[in-house]
Structure formats: structure tokens, C-alpha cells
């Protein structure tokens, strides 16, 4: 209680949750709510009814609310840390108020509120209640008595006049009810218009209350405030100091998540016969089925595997799947990127080093070969290895032994090698940048990963998988993808392959926060790819012009006469370079 009172006195923003079940209460507490408000409306919300059912003569409101608090909520929460209020129907003729308030305090509840309230009722029925002494004044009297017994008070108010009468009594929190909250597909303009109207009502109420007390403490409840971002506008444009969520916290999220989860299970069932999942990989295309078949046949063997494919096609996933299905699956799977380190450090990382082997070697360190002993060593970007290091790796594979840097003894190893590259080995070997004997040692089985543009039928399944991942990660509902957007995804060339697709889906999930995918988002996401395509075409045209003007010699000179580097810059083979030079001579 003291923590909540401190926040109120310091005029900090608070968040309350109006709940009707133990599950909702515990979830709200886990989310960091400042206080709970136990209402019978929560009971009806969780049974599929509107909160308005709390006003209907289904049962005694106070008995139902007490049972919810006593049996389902207070035993489950640490009420010493999380303050809880309880709703009281002040018009109940069966209640002996003072004894009931004492019972509330004994349960650990720190405050009360006037709910259900006659403020939700209007017309002749409301007039009759007021005339017979069962109107809003009865609720004021109930809250005043609660204050006398040391309980905190929250007042549901619907009009400025009601709020003024409440604030005169020294109520702790004025809770301005903006109307029943109704979840629906939100039309942005209509929703914003409703928020603008609510802001005017809030400002008008607070201005009126300020004529009575200097700094009224006002929070809001219900109305068009359906999303967390709606409260941001309220806090920025009014002097409201908090929000109490009922349906927006308890019913709407639960209903949405249940609906979405059922849809996802249905979607998984409808696609079960179509989706060919192989471990963590997905594919229905003939090229991926061929990949799955090769993995299944090669995994149980000890054969080295060379995985070829463009960047982002999933080469590491293939390596992990081979290891998972192999007889070495219980042993280590070690990844090592051959292109991400200098030659000197690469030798130490791969073979390990002894203490004192070089400056900074303060401890003995095991290399990748030893760490992978008994298991699998995945060497990514193998084509980037310096030739000197290639010789050392070839010996380790052939002899099945290594020596640490600074060491004197050979160490036996039992490692299966899986390598990967996105470069052309025929050209590398021809240019003497990769050893032919090492290539043969690595390529007992060559597995080629198809680029994403050649497996378009897999794209919808991959998108669905990534959407599942990111909607869970960010807590958004599963968005809809219109046919036009899906066609754009499928027809894109994907130079970054699956890695780029995954990034694009995550981008859309973040931008939309559960909304339907927009073609405008995709145009922005694919802008770089389109620029690269244009530049590529432009460069091809320029290359032809440069060849005619004799730019070959300029590039040769810049590369110190290195024909391999010149050929790489021009995008041609070494043989083409020799042909051009021979024709000139």
C-alpha cells in the first residue's frame, strides 16, 4: 500500500488491472502492474460475456466478487507487495457494510471501489434508483466509510459533477470511465476521432476538478483506449496519471491469442501433407527434396562433405542436420569461419597452442580440431583459407593428428570434416589459390544448395515459419499477407537468399505490429536489391566499353600484373585474360 501511496503523492503514472480470475491476476502481476482491482465483471468477461453482464441480475454482485477474491485471487498473489482493491455494489440491501469492510481488510485487500455502479445506468431506471436512495450518493457514502476504516478508495466517475462530489470527500484516485470498451477491427481515422473526443472529456473533467482541489489524481478506464500506444496520447495531451485496463488486459488479448493459436494449428494441419520438413529445414521443391535425400544418405557415413551454395542458402543448417543424423550426434559440432580471421591467428585457433607459445599465450588453449574430437568440424568459407594453412589442414586430415603451436607432441584426432563455400573451386584451383589435393579430401560428397530464386514454391512455407518465430518474439498477432504481397515475395530474386527473406519478414512484423503486410513496406525493403540490379546492368555495359578502350592494361597494372585479380575485377576467367593478351600481341 505504501508504495502505491508514494506514487500517488509523487504524481507518478500508475497502471491497474481490473481482473476476475487468478490466472489474469498472476499474469498482470508478472507484467508489472501497480495494483489489481477485483471486479465481478472479470468473471463474466472470462465466460465470453461483455462486462455489461456485471449489471444484470444473474447473481449477487458482492457475493460473487468476494468469492473471486477469496478463493481465486488473493491466495495466488503476494498481496504484501501487490495492492488489491475490490469492487463493492453499495446498493446491496443484504450487505452490512462495516462488517464487510472489516472482512475485506482481514483478507489482505487494501482498498475498495464503487463497482458495479449506477453510473453505468441512465434513463428512467437511473432516475428511479436515485429517487429511492439507491443512487450515486449511496456509493459516495460507501467509499467514505471505507476511508474511515483505513482503506484506500478508487471512485468510478462518469460525469464531472460526480467526480467533484467524490473529490470533495478526499478520494485517493478518481477513475474517469470513458464508456464500455469494445474490441473491433480498428479503422484508424474513426479510432483517432474517438480518442480526440476522449481527450477533450478528460481535459474538461480535470479542469473542472482543479477548481475544487489543486491537483486531482485522475486515471482513466474503458472507452476507445484499446492499445498501449493509445495511452501515450492520453499522457502527452492530458494531465491523466494512469490507466486501469479491464477488457483490454483480460479479455481482448486472451481472445485474440486463442483465436490466432487455433488458426495456426489449423494452418499447420492443412499444410502438413504439403510441407516437407527435414529437421530445421523446410522445402517442397524438387531441388530441396533432392538435398534432403542426399543428407539422409550421406549422414550415417564418415565421408567428408563439401556444401556449395550462395551466401544465405542455409549451408550451416545442412551441416548441422548431417551431424544430427550421424553416428557422431552425441559428440561436439564445432563451427569455424575460415574467412573471419588472420592467417597467424587461424593456425592457433585451428590447432590450439601451448602456454608461452607466443606473446599473450598465458594459458594452454585447445584448437577447433581438438574441441571437435569425436564429432564434426564445420569449416565455413573454406575457399578463403591461405594456401599455407591449407597444407597444414591437409596433413591433419590425412594423418588424423595435429600439433599445437609451440607443442612438441602429436595429438590424435577423430574428426569428420564438413566444409562450405560459395566460390568456384575450378577457378580457384586453376589460379593456384586452392590446393587440388585438399579439394579431393574435402569433396567426397558435394552437396549443392539451390538459391532461393530457384525454389519459389518453398517461399510461402518459409514466410509462414518466420512469421511464427517473430510474432512470438515481439508479441504481435499473426498478420495477414494479401495475395499481391505474397506474389511479390515469390517473384523477388533474393540475392541474399533465405537470410534476406528472414530479414524482410522480421521487418514487416515490426513495421506492422500484427497488421496486414503492405506492398509499400516491401518496395522499401527491396530498394537496395533494385539499385544493385541496375548498377550490375550498368557495370556490364561499362565493361564492354572499357575493354574496347584498352582498360585491361590499366587494371593489370593496378594489380601488379596479377591476372587472377584482374580477371576477378572484370568478371571473367583467367583464360579470357590470356586470350585478350594473346590477340593483342
Feature tags:
single chain, 585 residues, alpha/beta, TIM Barrel, Rossmann fold, Helicase, Ruva Protein, domain 3, 8-stranded parallel β-barrel, 5-stranded parallel sheet, 50% helix
Write the SSE topology.
Elements: H1 2-9, E1 14-19, H2 22-31, E2 35-38, H3 40-45, H4 61-73, E3 84-88, H5 97-107, E4 111-114, H6 123-131, H7 136-148, E5 152-157, H8 160-168, E6 173-177, H9 188-210, E7 218-221, H10 228-237, E8 242-245, H11 247-250, H12 252-270, E9 277-278, E10 281-282, H13 286-298, E11 305-308, H14 315-324, E12 333-337, H15 343-351, H16 368-371, E13 376-380, H17 387-399, E14 401-402, E15 411-412, E16 416-421, H18 425-430, H19 436-442, E17 445-448, H20 459-474, H21 483-491, H22 497-512, H23 519-525, H24 527-548, H25 551-558, H26 563-570, H27 574-584
Parallel strand pairs: 1-2, 1-8, 2-3, 3-4, 4-5, 5-6, 6-7, 7-8, 11-16, 11-17, 12-13, 13-16
Antiparallel strand pairs: 9-10, 14-15
Amino acid at each position: 500500500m505504501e508504495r502505491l501511496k508514494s506514487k500517488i503523492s509523487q504524481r507518478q503514472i500508475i497502471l491497474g488491472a481490473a481482473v476476475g480470475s487468478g490466472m489474469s491476476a498472476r499474469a498482470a502481476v508478472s507484467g508489472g502492474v501497480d495494483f489489481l482491482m477485483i471486479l465481478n465483471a472479470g468473471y463474466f468477461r472470462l465466460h465470453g460475456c461483455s462486462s455489461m453482464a456485471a449489471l444484470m441480475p444473474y447473481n449477487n454482485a458482492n457475493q460473487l466478487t468476494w468469492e473471486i477474491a477469496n478463493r481465486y485471487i488473493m491466495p495466488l498473489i503476494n498481496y504484501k507487495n501487490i495492492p488489491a482493491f475490490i469492487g463493492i455494489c453499495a446498493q446491496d440491501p443484504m450487505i452490512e457494510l462495516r462488517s464487510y469492510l472489516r472482512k475485506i481488510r482481514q483478507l489482505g485487500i487494501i482498498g475498495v471501489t464503487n463497482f458495479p455502479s449506477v453510473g453505468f445506468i441512465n434513463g428512467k431506471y437511473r432516475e428511479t434508483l436515485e429517487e429511492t436512495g439507491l443512487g450515486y450518493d449511496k456509493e459516495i457514502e460507501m467509499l467514505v466509510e471505507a476511508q474511515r476504516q483505513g482503506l484506500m478508495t478508487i471512485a468510478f466517475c462518469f460525469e464531472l459533477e460526480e467526480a467533484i462530489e467524490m473529490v470533495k470527500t478526499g478520494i485517493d484516485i478518481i477513475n474517469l470511465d470513458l464508456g464500455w470498451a469494445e474490441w473491433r477491427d480498428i479503422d484508424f481515422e474513426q479510432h483517432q476521432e474517438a480518442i480526440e473526443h476522449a481527450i477533450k472529456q478528460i481535459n474538461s473533467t480535470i479542469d473542472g476538478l482543479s477548481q475544487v482541489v489543486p491537483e486531482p489524481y485522475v486515471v482513466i478506464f474503458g472507452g476507445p483506449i484499446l492499445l498501449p500506444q493509445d495511452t501515450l496520447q492520453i499522457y502527452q495531451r492530458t494531465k491523466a496519471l494512469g490507466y486501469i485496463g479491464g477488457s483490454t488486459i483480460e479479455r481482448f488479448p486472451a481472445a485474440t491469442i486463442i483465436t490466432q493459436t487455433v488458426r495456426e494449428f489449423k494452418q499447420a494441419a492443412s499444410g502438413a501433407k504439403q510441407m516437407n520438413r527435414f529437421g530445421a529445414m523446410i522445402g517442397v521443391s524438387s531441388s530441396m527434396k533432392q538435398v534432403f535425400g542426399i543428407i539422409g544418405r550421406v549422414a550415417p557415413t564418415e565421408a567428408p562433405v563439401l556444401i556449395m551454395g550462395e551466401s544465405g542458402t542455409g549451408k550451416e543448417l545442412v551441416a548441422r542436420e548431417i551431424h544430427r543424423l550421424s553416428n557422431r550426434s552425441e559428440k561436439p559440432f564445432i563451427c569455424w569461419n575460415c574467412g573471419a580471421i588472420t592467417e597467424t591467428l587461424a593456425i592457433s585457433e585451428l590447432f590450439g597452442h601451448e602456454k608461452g607459445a607466443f606473446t599473450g599465450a598465458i594459458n594452454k588453449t585447445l584448437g577447433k580440431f581438438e574441441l571437435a574430437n569425436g564429432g564434426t568440424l564445420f569449416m565455413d568459407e573454406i575457399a578463403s583459407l591461405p594456401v599455407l594453412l591449407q597444407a597444414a589442414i591437409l596433413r591433419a586430415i590425412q594423418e588424423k593428428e595435429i600439433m599445437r603451436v609451440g607443442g612438441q607432441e602429436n595429438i590424435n584426432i577423430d574428426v569428420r570434416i564438413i566444409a562450405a563455400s560459395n566460390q568456384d573451386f575450378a577457378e580457384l584451383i586453376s589460379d593456384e589459390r586452392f590446393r587440388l589435393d585438399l579439394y579431393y579430401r574435402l569433396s567426397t560428397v558435394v552437396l549443392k544448395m539451390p538459391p532461393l530464386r530457384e525454389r519459389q514454391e518453398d517461399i510461402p512455407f518459409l514466410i509462414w515459419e518466420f512469421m511464427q518465430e517473430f510474432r512470438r518474439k515481439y508479441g504481435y498477432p499473426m498478420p495477414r499477407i494479401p495475395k499481391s504481397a505474397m506474389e511479390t515475395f515469390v517473384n523477388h530474386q533474393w540475392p541474399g537468399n533465405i537470410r534476406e527473406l528472414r530479414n524482410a519478414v522480421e521487418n514487416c512484423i515490426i513495421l506492422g505490429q500484427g497488421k496486414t503486410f503492405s506492398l509499400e513496406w516491401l518496395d522499401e525493403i527491396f530498394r537496395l536489391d533494385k539499385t544493385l540490379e541496375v548498377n550490375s546492368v550498368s557495370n556490364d555495359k561499362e565493361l564492354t566499353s572499357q575493354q574496347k578502350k584498352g582498360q585491361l592494361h590499366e587494371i593489370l597494372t593496378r594489380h601488379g600484373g596479377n591476372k587472377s585479380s584482374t580477371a576477378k575485377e572484370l568478371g571473367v576467367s583467367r583464360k579470357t585474360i590470356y586470350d585478350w593478351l594473346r590477340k593483342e600481341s
